[in-house]
Amino acid sequence: MTEFTSVGRSATDRASRYGSQLVKHFTHKDLEGSWEDGRGFVRFSLGLAEFEALDDALVMRVASSSSEEDVARLRDVVERHLVRFGNRDELTVTWS
Question: Does the predicted model carry a pTM greater than 0.90?
Fold first, then answer.
């Protein structure tokens, strides 16, 4: 089975705070997810988003077994929420 993935990075010295906030937000919407020791995940109907807090960035990996389009949708959802939550810090995401 093919897995489509994309990895994003957002420079911030508050990566753990933002990763935790993303996971909490999505799990309050009845999605499965967890945050512990600077790492977390959220399982969406389209696929999986994983988060890792580094000292200087939040790294996000989105994956879907369905299609590149589903990965693009996951990227969009994760990025929009992070940018909104990090508005004061003017967060941006670079995807590869």
Answer: yes
**Residue 80 phi, psi dihedral angles, 5° rounding:** -60, -45
Largest CA distance in the chain: 41
Packing angle between helix 15-27 and helix 68-85, nearest 10 degrees? 110
As given in the structure block, the two tokens for residue 51 are 């988060």
5 phi/psi in degrees, rounded to 5: -140, 160
Q: How far apart are CA 52 and CA 49, in angstroms?
A: 10
Q: Is the dihedral of CA 36, 25, 43, 68 positive or negative?
A: negative
Sketch the domain layout of the chain as residue ranges: 4-86
Task: With CA atoms as reference, report the closest residue to 84 among 71, 72, 93, 73.
Answer: 93
Task: Please tell me the class of the 4-86 domain.
Answer: alpha beta
Residues 41-91 have pLDDT tens digits of 999 999 999 999 999 999 999 999 899 999 999 999 999 999 999 999 999
